[in-house]
Amino acid sequence: MSAAFRKAAKSGQRPHRERAQPASRRKLGLLEKKKDYRLRADDYHKKQNALRALQKKALDKNPDEFYFKMIRAELQDGVHIIKQPKDEVTPEQVKLMRTQDIKYVEMKRVAEAKKIERLKSELHLLDAEGKNPNKHVFFFDTKKQVQEFDIATHLDTVPELVGRVYNRPTIATLQKETLKGVTEPAHLKKLAQQRKNQYDLLKQRIEREKAMFVIAQKIQTRKDLLDKTHKVKVKKETTNGPAIYKFKFQRKR
Questions:
Q1: Is residue 3 part of a domain?
Q2: Is position 64 within any domain?
Q3: Contact 225, 245 (CB under 8 A)
Q4: I need a labelling partner for 195 at 20 to 30 A (CA). Which of 29, 127, 158, 249 fits?
Q5: d(CA 141, CA 93)
Q6: What pLDDT digit, counting tens, does each position of 68-82 carry?
Q7: Could you give the CA distance from residue 168 to residue 181 in angstroms, rounded to a whole number?
């Protein structure tokens, strides 16, 4: 018999027996620490106080008070949905603006411009599909001259070469030298296709250079907005140009 039972038997009191612990709580021990109870009690009262404060705030709120979600939210099928603003920039522009700075973008733009100039010098702006045809106007004094006009005779070349706008030698040159270059129709068609591909590449590079210029402008505008000077937005940002701001004039000492 334990000391507690002997003491209870002598005093005539009913002995206290520890109740059996559930199997899930046997690992925690027989008795519960007083400190653990106090921590749980403090946490419970803290949560109750927070709930009472939120209830009081909800009761004190003015139902006619304005807040920005009133104009940015709409009700669809009984659910409030926040209106998403329109993206005025393409995903490629956003990605590049977040990862690169204006110096890198400007460097890439200058490199693209040099490639464009080099490609133009190679092509010499020859005829290609999609390009407006060149016009050569001849002037005459009488209608008889117009009726008797022969373009091959006027250009001093053979009729087979009249349709060319480049590499069109005269009859005197043909008598001295043979015609240089490709003359077979199949080869000419192949060269025309290659020339068209080069013009398509030139068009893509020009569009890429313009996109780089717009990105550089947008990055520079964001840097200018870091200034604390008072400013007013004049024009919104678009996919083809940055936003325009009017800054307050400040005299520099």
A1: no
A2: no
A3: yes
A4: 158
A5: 59
A6: 777 778 888 888 888
A7: 11
